[in-house]
């Protein structure tokens, strides 16, 4: 039918973008003196699933993590460049980089390649010197998004952002304790990528607290 043909065209157009080539789903969410970052575990080539245990979140230091959604090859390249810049910062300053400074570093690295960009959308989650949550997200040329923690303390990225936004707006509330934050971000991510064929197959969740980092792996629908 005409409707079926139109639906098929919409799906093809949506999946044909380079940002959706490997598929991803990612959330950063703030709590009370804690912050969470979570991503799916699928590595695919368009509709073909190649692996179900791929990490998309990297540790910068004990209170700062970065997740990279988008094209897998650009994720690897960009993270290697970030590791070099972080090492140089630590060598020169003799201290860990602050979350806000790291956000500016990521934004600058992306913007300087704007004419031949890295096809990634980063999500940064961390705690500052006063253990207040910090969240950052950007597009592939480094335009920053820093949310208001009092009204919408979350950022999303990947191939199912509409679904993730809807879930986060419904379930997030201010001053979530670490276990409440884990439950909230987990349910948002699982419900979001259940409606997206390009991401899913379980999730990895990091809850960053002042004295520890809680990391858990979730099982999701395997289809």
Task: Tell me what you see in this structure.
The protein is an alpha+beta fold and 223 residues long. The chain has one domain (19-218): Aminohydrolase, N-terminal nucleophile (Ntn) domain (Glutamine Phosphoribosylpyrophosphate, subunit 1, domain 1), CATH 3.60.20. 35% of the residues lie in helices and 29% in strands. It contains 5 helices and 12 strands. The protein has helices at residues 2-16, 72-93, 99-111, 161-171, 178-193; strands spanning 25-30, 35-40, 43-45, 48-51, 57-61, 64-70, 120-127, 133-138, 144-145, 154-158, 203-208, 213-218. The protein has a 5-stranded antiparallel β-sheet with strand order 10-1-2-11-12, covered by helices on one side. It has a 5-stranded antiparallel β-sheet with strand order 5-6-7-8-9, with helices on one face. A hairpin with a 5-residue loop joins strand 8 (133-138) and strand 9. Helix 4 (161-171) packs antiparallel against helix 5 (178-193). The model is unreliable at 8-15 (pLDDT under 50).
